[in-house]
Design a protein that fits this description.
Number of strands of chain B: 0
Structural class of chain A: alpha/beta
Strand content of chain A: 15-25%
Low-confidence stretches of chain B: none
Distance between the termini of chain A: 25 Å
Shape of chain A: globular
Number of strands of chain A: 5
Radius of gyration of chain A: 14 Å
Distance between the termini of chain B: 29 Å
Largest interface: A-B, 16 and 21 residues
Oligomer: heterodimer
Order of helices and strands of chain B: HHHHHH
Largest sheet of chain B: none
Strand order of the largest sheet of chain A: 2-1-3-4-5
Order of helices and strands of chain A: EHEHEHEHEH
Low-confidence stretches of chain A: none
Mean pLDDT of chain A: 91
Mean pLDDT of chain B: 90
Helix content of chain B: 55-70%
Chain lengths: ~130, ~140
Amino acid sequence: MSNQVSPQILLAEDEEHIAKLVAFKLTREGYEVTIARNGKEAIDQLLLKPWSLLILDVMMPICDGWQVLKQVRATPAVAQLPVLMLTAKSFQQDMVNAAELGATQFLKKPFEPANLAAVVRKLIEGV
Amino acid sequence: MDWNSDPELKAMHAEFVGSFAERRTGLDRLSRDLSMMPLGGDSAEIHKGIAFIAHKLAGAAASYGFPLLTEVSAALEDWLSLTPPEELKTGIVNEFTGLLTEVLAKAEHDQVDPKGYEKDPRLEKLLAATTHLRR
């Protein structure tokens, strides 16, 4: 009997339909996905599980993705957590911000779910 | 993606399409509020409201198989980023939000990305006004 635990992904995304689609796709790929509806919820979740990846939307209510990323990099327990930023408008500026604040990778919205899954697999499993 | 390949996927797709009516209502209300200015409404709030609807749609629609919806809403969002709230004019805003509500209605009715808008003069105007943002 396998005791292997599925890699845990924290997904911070306020757009319900995107959150559901991403959770669906990644769950089918064998990951366990927890959804945070805004940046504050994401920060509250940070120390609750051994996350393998944080997927972070930029524009979110209460606390945006940049603020969450800053918090992650400033918290020793999760400072090395791989972070995938989902960027939309002002893509060029988002790329600069992502690099400066220490995002591991970024993906432009809208994305193909299969493409997202491939990026996630590479970030978590290196394949 | 084959949305009919899985019952859960099919349901999510239907739910997303089901959200179009509310987005259209939001756009119509904001356009109406703008037309009532200066008697009622706040141009900054109206600008923010339309931009929010456009932004959310732009970021999601193509992922659900509606690339034209993403193109139109992203162009509207880009145009709004170039147009300060105090410069919003009812006629042109109605023209652009009218295009988006029309495309939303057609997508909702047909359940697929609408065709035949490639040469729509409203879309061409929107894209021409914002083309430098995409270089």
